[in-house]
Amino acid sequence: MSVAVIYGVGSIFAIAMIASLIVSILLRFTSLTESSLTYVVMIVSFLSLFIGGFISGGKGKKQGLFLGGSTGLLYLLVMFLFQYLGHDALFTIKQWIYYGCFVITAMMGGVLGVNMSSDSRTD
Question: Which of 41, 64, 88, 118 would be a feasible disulfide site paired with 57, CB 3.0-4.6 Å?
Fold first, then answer.
């Protein structure tokens, strides 16, 4: 079960690194500004959490809600520690709401991942 969560969180960070590279290239070589990409970054964040939950649910093959939630919570913990230890700041209320929605999104991905990988389906 913990291996599935690690795979999920790893995929979240992999997607985040690729998206960060793409966004930084766009910001460097185009006339786009950071504020114009706010919604794009938010959508990519939700997609990466959903995909991470989906992967953890698919790897675990059972308890998708738990695996997706654990994936989202581990991501939240890493981000909280990074912000607290690296920037000496706590989450704001707005950030808590975002991260709560991220955990819910990862849980939905975990449920779908278990259902998509289920061997008990009949065609």
Answer: 64
